[in-house]
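Interim report, section 4.2 (structural modelling).
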Amino acid sequence: MGFMQTNWSIYFATLKETTAYRIVMLFSLITGPLTVLVNYVIWKAIFASTGKAVFGGFTFEQMLTYIAISHVTWYLVWDDTEDDLIEGVREGNFTAYLLKPLSYIRFAFVKKVGHRTWALFIEYLPVLIIIGLMFGFQIFKSSNVLWYALMVIIGFITLFLVNMLLGMFAFWFIRPKGIVWMYRMAARFLYGGILPLSIFPLAMQKIFFFLPFQFVAYVPAQAFIGRYELAGVTLQPLETLLYGAFQVFILYLVVLLFWRISVKKFCGVGT
Amino acid sequence: MISNIKLHLQFMKMRIASRMAYRLDFLVSAVAFFTFQLVAPLFVGIIYLAGGEFPGWSYPQVLLLQGALNLSRGISFMLFFGILWNTIQRVRRGTFDLFLLKPVSTLWLLVMDSFDEEDVGQVMGGLTVTLVALYFLPDVQGSVLLYLLFMLFGVMFFFGLALLSSAASILFVNTHRLYEFVDLITIFAAYPKTVFSGGLAITFSVILPLFVVSYYPASALLGFAYEQGIAAMISTIIFVSIGLLVWHTALKKYKSAGG
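Predicted structure of the assembly:
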């Protein structure tokens, strides 16, 4: 079976598998708009209290766009690669992957592509429409949709690689749940989903700038608005994209290296 | 009743003992839950640092409110909120049936089996946020007794929410995303009532008395007026009663799934 043929097989198998969860995905039609609503209420109060038109470099409309876009982007980039790997190692199912003439990393990545294809139609687009109906479609007016799409691809790969790294802790610890939880807590801030990273104190922004996590939510949402600025650094869209590609490349090398070391520790039985 | 309490304590001891088999993971998980409690206070801290504010509330006052939320949620998640996850897992695997065979109330058994020791991190986080808030608010003039009473009602509210969520999991298999909904609801409770418009403020005070877990206890301790507080308490009792009714009705309709 050729390289692409294998990928297509995994992709279509995942599409079929994911149809079983499409009702669960529909849950986002309630939680997505509600999340944006709660943020809308909070930010409205903050802007009203300051009496200023601009807060942290955002107008109220830009903040609403940022919140809405960073939220829906999450549906496209989300994955649970780390859970799959941890469960596979713990239950011993991972052995089956070692016997196949197929890279586990490639398998997991194509699986994610299949899974998120469903999310595009069941979560992303419907939630986008509901939010538009609630707050007006003008918040989605942008001339940077292409740049946004490219940044989403970078975010998609970044989150996958980060989660692969996280999942590899299963080779080192019998129960890495605590580490995963710890990461998830920190990630709420690191992605820029809770708050735009540019509102954080400058010292923290300098740290965020060198980390790849910003490409998961902050960079796509900012690209949609049409700008990139963090820690006093302003980048043009192409520069941002190249910087993202560089971060992905480094992350990929780290994943490959850590994978080679980690797999050697696998004992081949459920632990 | 006494034998039930003894049984409950025995369950808790067993849970802690089994978790101690992986001490490091337990410790890291508890620290993670502790850190989780700092997310909302950090968010608000950055807003205040950048020059924003919530009308009528200083940063330490908002901290006290969020500390109350973290404490009531932490206590609830440690003692009984695990019934949601437990129901989801057991219904999906078909092991929920085992509970129906035991000579103890099914709900009591489910609550006992759902003790979550890791959430001690949440309780500690809530306590820390509250103590930090009180450090910066040395002259609070409210009532401690009323604060504790509202906190009790806050825990009751979470019990009602846990019952309704668990009931949904009995009726509909694979409802793990209900946790997202619970998370989302608690986000509304992390901010003062003054942030919300009239309709939402009344909804969360009286219809779905969410403010009883945060705004009312904090207001009582700060000596602020707590309009509709009594209505919120009555509403909480009704909410828990509905929760119990719905849960028992769902149990009657339970059809073994498994698989």
